[in-house]
Amino acid sequence: MNRRSLLLPLLDEVLERRGGLEPADVEGTARAAGLPPAVAWEAVRFYPRYQARGVRWLLVDEPVVRGRNFEKLLDALERAAGRAGVEPGTVFGYGLEAVGPALVVEDGPSRRVYAPVDAAGIERLAAGGEPGPEAELLPRELARGGGWLLEEAGKLPAFPGADELISAVREAGLRGLGGALFPTWRKLEAVRAQASEVKYVVVNGDESEPGNFKDRWLMERNPRLVWAGAALAARAVGAGEVIFYVRGEYDGALARVEAARAGLEKEGYFDGLKTQTFRGGGLYICGEESALLESIEGKRAEPRLKPPYPAEAGLFGRPTLVQNVETLAHIALIAARGAAAYRERAPKLFSISGDVELPGVYELPLGTPLDRVLELAGAKKPRAVLMGGAAGTFVKLPESAGLPLDYDAPRAGGDSIGPGALMVFDETRDLWAAAEGVAAFFAHESCGKCFPCSLGTPHLQALVWRWRRGERRRELLEKLFLALEQGSLCGLGQAAPWAVRSLLERFEEVAR
Amino acid sequence: MSRVPVVINGVLVEAEPGETILNAARRAGVEIPTICHHERTGTKGLCRLCVVEMAGRGRPEPACATEVAAGMVVNTESEELAALRRTVLELVALETNVEHDDGLAGWLEKYGADPARWGEPLAGRRARQTIRDNAFYLREYDKCYNCRRCLDACGEGIQGVWALAFAGRGAEAGVTTVFDLTLAEAGCVFCGNCVQVCPTGALVPLEEISLAAGGLL
Fold first, then answer.
1. What is the mean pLDDT of residues A101-128?
2. Helix (H), strand (E) at residue A26
3. Strand partners of residue A265
4. What pLDDT, on the 0 to 100 scale, is given for residue B209?
5. What are phi and psi of A144, to 5 degrees?
6. In what order do the strands lie in the sheet with A110-114?
7. Cα Rg of chain A, angstroms
């Protein structure tokens, strides 16, 4: 097939070479990518890094720091930035919840990331120093207790044949670990069944769900295992090309994913399979699988209407298998160790942060009760766990102590492990402040495509803000929950109310 | 080709193969509210006003983007759908200058919408300045809902000119031109298709203004 030139890498190349983008550059890259200039201009006006100008100091906004001292730190940052004549602001996520609070010093399209930082660190930054330790990679010691996924991959598994691999994945009971928990073998089967000569595998490494950093860990520390899973999946479904989409801000992960790709290429592991590492657009919506495909195509990362599903008409209209980083690592493990051994162990990565002595990435058997997990991580007097991420729910303790963390049990109560984030809040934390951060996140990350989400999420944020300050409009919140959850086009808008609603339903006594 | 039997609001409707629920319902005399759908543009599934309940589906689906299938059982009105539409209509009317959209006024009334209960507008749309950069029409984007019909008419849907572009994200998103140029610089051929498909009165032909003012050009 023809190798297409993709718009975002072309724009990135110009950005790196010249430090900025002029209309003539955009026109030239659009031509090279075979897109109308208007489409390229839409991309430039959509993805944050193409608009980045000058130096900005950005406090990383995530639920854990929101529950602690976000407002005080932001205040300190704004005052320091004011004195230094630098623009202050906030930025969401970064997968640093376990080592935060984190701060990003952005200089145009490039950045340096520091964690942890405190008010004194911000003062040092204003005085021309470093605000804290640099955090380009997650510290190695964040891998707690070891496990199959946390051990560096040794000899990679050989391809056992499509039938064998897919039935092993089915027997293993693997589900999509980006959070949707859809049976993986069904997706594999659906793409395999398509008659197209051109098919793609896309690795979804756009981990932008607050509280989750297990994909980041795998991309930084075990990328060969993920590539191996992607290559096996590609052979099983008959795809000739794998595109590994890494979250745009994850500089360290990008470098390591690309180094692993180059190494495997050199070793001959890919055996004719085309591979590419792709810097993602740098927005939460890029992790929605159809929006992710749009962004590879050089368009605004907006979710598509389904059907058709990517398995039928995905990247450039071709059948496409989109799988999360961890899911693919599991496919490699299943191929290496067999479905029976895998099923017996039932490994799952959890990203644990907040009020625990040992925050980090844990590999635990699916079904481990919540209180056992909290004990392992050293939680003291936990009152709530924000489970799944921003698109998750607050689970109350000790009421839910025995909840088994598996694919199905939490669903009975309207919860889900999602991608496996557990953000722990003890009795001293302000859960409404955390919920306000979640609402702000969705308002910021809404793509602007469907009306309920683009118009509704700012009002969700405003209503939570007002609630925290004593003005309780429960009936408006309920109206908004319905419009967002039932009316939004994609999972972003549909999930936007979940955390706030769970707080209202389960923690009303703490609403002051 | 054989007809496709579907049940809409309890009534058996013989739909055409390949048509949408929205069309089948309209032909059966059932009106479903919509903003973004237009028969000549490819825009669909954005405003979410036309979502309908379908037996066996968890969430309501947009009638404008869902093809009929034999045996489908569809409800176009329910308490939940009314509440959902009311909220979306209220937010549209709160955030946008809707004074020139008679169609929307009808839907606001039907669903008992009270935009003021949401407090102050948050999207910044109403503060947008009118753009007058050509002799043919004004762009009053304080009246724009982001239905994208104009974008589709200009780009891949009808004209293939691609003078218009969509910029920004979330509540701040809106229509602009390629490289934010004037329309003429952006390659606009002033075909008028965008004005034709705009449901809100945001794109105003200058001739209309001059006639309304009692004079000829």
1. 95
2. helix A23-33
3. none
4. 67
5. -100, 125
6. A87-92, A55-61, A103-107, A110-114
7. 22
> Which structural domain, as residue segments, surrounds residue A41?
7-45
Q: Is residue B171 within 8 Å of B95, Cβ to Cβ?
A: yes
Taking the CA of residue A371 and the nearest CA in chain B, the distance in Å comes to 32
pTM score of the predicted model = 0.96
Place of tokens 């399209």: A109
Sort out which chain A residues have CB atoms less than 8 A from B46's CB and list them. Answer: 449-451, 489
Same domain, A174 and A203: yes
**For A406-464, what is each residue's pLDDT tens digit?**
999 999 999 999 999 999 999 999 999 999 999 999 999 999 999 999 999 999 999 99
pLDDT for the residue A109 = 84
Contact A417, A212 (CB under 8 A): no
Distance CA A72, CA A84 (A): 18
Say yes or no to pLDDT of A2 above 60: no
Interface predicted TM-score of the whole assembly (ipTM), two decimals: 0.95
Nearest CA in chain B to A24: B179
Question: If you write DSSP's letter for every residue of A288-337 in order, what string do you get?
Answer: SHHHHHHHHTTS---PPPSSSPTTTS-GGGS-EEEEEHHHHHHHHHHHHH
Best to test chain B binding among A41, A457, A472 (most B CBs inside 10 Å): A41
Of A136, A166, A195, the residue that ends a domain is A136
Taking an 8 Å cut-off on Cβ atoms, the answer to whether A45 and B168 are in contact is yes
- pLDDT tens-digit profile of B68-94? 999 999 999 999 999 999 999 999 999
Read off the tokens for A186.
Answer: 């069904």
Same domain, residue pair A398 and A463: no
Asked if A191 and A275 sit in the same domain, the reply is: yes
From residue A253, give the alpha-carbon distance in Å to each of A48, A78, A107, A205, B33.
19, 30, 20, 9, 47
